Amino acid sequence: MTIIERLKQLSEVGAVIRCPVMELLGGDHEPPVVVGEGEITVLTATSFAYALRGTPADIGYALRSLRRIEADPRDSRLRERLTVTTADGLELSGGWTIPKIHLPNDGRNWVFTGEIEALSLHENGAYEPGTEVAYLLPSQHRARVILRRFFPQRPCTAPEMRLTVLGSEVVFSLDDDANLLRVRVPATEALPATFTENWLGEPLRILFGQMIYPRFVARQSETWLMGCIRPSPKWSQKSDACALWQGDNELVGSEEFWESYRRLLAYVAAPRDANGYPNFEANKITALYGEVIQAAHGSRWVWALTYASAVEAMVKLLGLAGQPRTDMDAASLAKFTEAVDEFRSYIDRWEGDPRLKEPAQNAASRMLKTSAAQGLRQLMREGWIKKDEFDAWDVLRNRVMHGSLVSPYSSAEEDKLLLDLAHLFHAMTRRLLAEVDPDSAAAAMPQNNSPCVVTDAGADRIGGGSSQECLAKRLPVLVGPNVPAGFNLLRCITNRQ
Fold first, then answer.
1. Final residue of a structural domain among 216, 249, 280
2. Which of 111, 121, 190, 232 qualifies as a FRET site for 202, CA 20 to 30 Å off?
3. What's the first-to-final CA gap in the chain, in angstroms?
4. Do 19 and 86 meet the contact criterion of CB atoms below 8 Å apart?
5. 298 & 222 share domain
6. What backbone phi and psi angles, to 5 degrees, belong to 336?
7. 184 and 204: one domain?
8. Domain containing 324: what range?
9. Separation of alpha carbons 107 and 206, rounded Å
């Protein structure tokens, strides 16, 4: 039995895990708050409940420890930690918790209850270093149909798909009976076991427009294994229109889908900080998709506000914002720079209200740099985005950023604006992926915030022809304004105040 299968047995909703030994721990290197017995119940795919029955050996110490969180409710380290030993002898850690105390009237054991989000185990042995994760797949979601079609079929065994990303082999397997998508990858310098468990799910979050996190994680070194059951949020059709992978070809573009995953994973996994360490938190592009996914459950105004802000963030990711003006040739820019310098000098000599000087000089200096609007116009001239998409951002951005509400009621005109804004965000994502080489860490992301440049040589790696044409062939085709997927999402948030 694999570690994933063992973890799955402990995670079935409604299951009760009997625990002859349960401990609540306080600070590091301190004695337990209480030791007792009890059980853990699986409530949902995101939570467990526990009940521990036992009386603290030192009631004063226990009460002081339980009240530590009151000193700073935002410091998670002041919470208690739950560890248990199951009836089968399995030692599990339940992580942080804030327990409640119930004192029985008959003077028997105290009862400590609460909730935890995860369970983990640690074992020693000989293992192949690497990472394996498993994601819960809803049986009725369109992603299930897409994945079934995109896996090579093998008789009598689960379908598998193998990709090469940054020199490592990433292996997907679709377990339809268990409702699981499993991914495993050996530990390498590019995809180390301590970070890859988070990276593997980020492309799926973007492609399917869902808050996708692994339910099961197995992290292995040569001498130990760590397995985790983690919270896996429920998928929602409300955010389907946030998905990068959608459109007329979403059920037939297998090659394009896996190429999109490769590029997204390379973009997420390649960055290193100044000291050469990988990023533990989600990549910026994944974080932006997380925001728009969550905004899809709010009002239409929240939808517009979030997408408009996310588009501006994408301009920065593409390295366009703050660069020298791209809508002028060198001679024109030099002449304009001289005019700005003369204006700033004039302001220096001006003897009026000094409070006006700095804002005026800063405004003049900003005119030498590419703004978000100018960056988007450049992408429009290059054919990456459409005029309707730019116009939607231009209209909605200025409206919602200055406090004007979007109508809570659906109309053809406003629905088109909202959908075009979403299409713009997706088109900019495709523009970002156009330069990513999933086989080279050095070429997996822009360096030093320099503007993205896609050459025809680079374009050849994703289908040949001009950059825009080949990208359209190899990356997702976006939903049009009349396609039901996006329209249904807007309808679901219609009439919300």
1. 280
2. 121
3. 51
4. yes
5. no
6. -65, -35
7. yes
8. 294-492
9. 54
Write out the chain's pLDDT in tens, 497 residues.
Answer: 788 989 999 999 999 999 999 999 998 888 999 999 999 999 999 999 999 999 999 999 999 999 988 888 888 889 999 999 999 999 999 999 999 999 887 778 899 999 999 999 999 999 999 999 999 999 889 999 999 999 987 776 778 999 999 999 999 999 988 899 999 999 999 999 889 999 999 999 999 999 999 999 999 999 999 999 999 999 999 999 999 999 888 888 899 999 999 999 999 999 988 888 888 899 999 999 999 999 999 999 999 999 999 999 999 999 887 777 777 888 888 888 888 888 888 888 888 888 888 888 888 887 877 788 888 999 999 999 999 999 999 999 888 887 888 888 888 999 999 999 999 999 999 999 998 999 986 666 554 444 444 433 333 333 323 334 433 333 444 333 333 333 333 433 333 33
* Neighbouring residues of 182: CB distance < 8 A, sequence distance ≥ 6: 4, 132, 133, 134, 135, 172, 173, 174, 175
Closest CA to 25 of 17, 11, 16, 35: 35
The alpha carbon of residue 388 and the mean position of all alpha carbons in its chain are separated, in whole angstroms, by 28
Specify the CATH number for the domain of residue 95: 2.30.110
- For residue 286, is it within any domain? no
Q: Does residue 497 lie in a domain region?
A: no
Shared-domain flag, residues 244 and 326: no
pTM value? Answer: 0.85
Same domain, 321 and 406: yes
Whether residues 245 and 266 fall in one domain? yes
Q: Flag whether 288 is in a domain.
A: no
Same domain? 455 vs 326? yes
Q: Contact 38/94 with Cβ under 8 angstroms?
A: no
Enter the tokens of residue 219: 């992290």
Instruction: State how many domains the chain has.
Output: 3
